[in-house]
Specification:
The model is unreliable at 178-199 (pLDDT under 50). 49% of the residues lie in helices and 0% in strands. The protein has helices at residues 35-38, 46-61, 71-80, 95-104, 115-119, 122-125, 127-130, 137-173, 179-186. By secondary structure, it is an all-alpha fold. GO terms for molecular function: ATP binding; protein kinase activity. Residues 167-190 have a biased composition (Low complexity).
């Protein structure tokens, strides 16, 4: 209670200009991308509702609705809207909360709930009556574990990339071996390269 909530990482955000309704391009954090972005369709404001649905799911149980170490399988999950509410983490989450998430994670953007509609959803506007007030310590624990795994994966990928770049640069700087050096390394005789016309 009373903890500050900070919104960050707007590096890929697009400022809405006038009455523009559609954007194009492929950018974003993999687990938060909407199906229409992954399909490379024109997209609009519903992508933000999708991302908020992912965030709400994470806040309630501490792990994301879509997750796979393989990015292709992750994207397949997202495009199919393939997520569930596994036990026991979701057993104490109210039906209203799940209904809101379902409305936000609707694959068809035309049928996805809007921001105005979400603000009128019972789980939002009738929180005193329908939302659970239980302190979800298990959610905090799950979130810490997920973040630790995510950071570890990021560190491993960074190390692999740095190693690959170093190896590439080292190879580029290494002089090509002479025929004599190659022959010495393999035990073969180096070919005679003198000019026969000198005899």
């Amino acid at each position: 209670k009373g903890a500050a909530v900070k919104l960050a990482d707007f590096g890929l955000a697009i400022e809405v200009q006038g009455e523009q309704q559609a954007w194009y391009g492929f950018a974003g954090t993999p687990g938060y991308l909407s199906p229409e972005v992954l399909k490379k369709d024109p997209y609009g404001k519903p992508v933000d509702i999708w991302a908020c649905g992912v965030i709400l799911y994470i806040l309630l149980v501490g792990y994301p609705p879509f997750w796979d170490e393989d990015q292709h399988r992750l994207y397949a999950q997202i495009k199919a809207g393939a997520y569930d509410y596994p036990s026991p983490e979701w057993d104490t989450v109210t039906p209203e909360a799940k209904n809101l998430i379902n409305s936000m994670l609707t694959v068809n953007p035309a049928k996805r709930i809007t921001a105005a509609e979400a603000l009128k959803h019972p789980w939002i506007c009738q929180r005193e009556r329908v939302a659970s007030t239980l302190h979800r310590q298990e959610t905090v624990d799950c979130l810490k574990k997920f973040n630790a795994r995510r950071k570890l994966k990021g560190a491993i990928l960074t190390t692999m990339l740095a190693t690959r770049n170093f190896s590439s640069k080292s190879t580029d700087r290494s002089p090509s071996p002479s025929p004599a050096q190659t022959a010495a390394a393999t035990g073969a005789h180096a070919p005679d390269t003198h000019n026969p016309n000198q005899h």
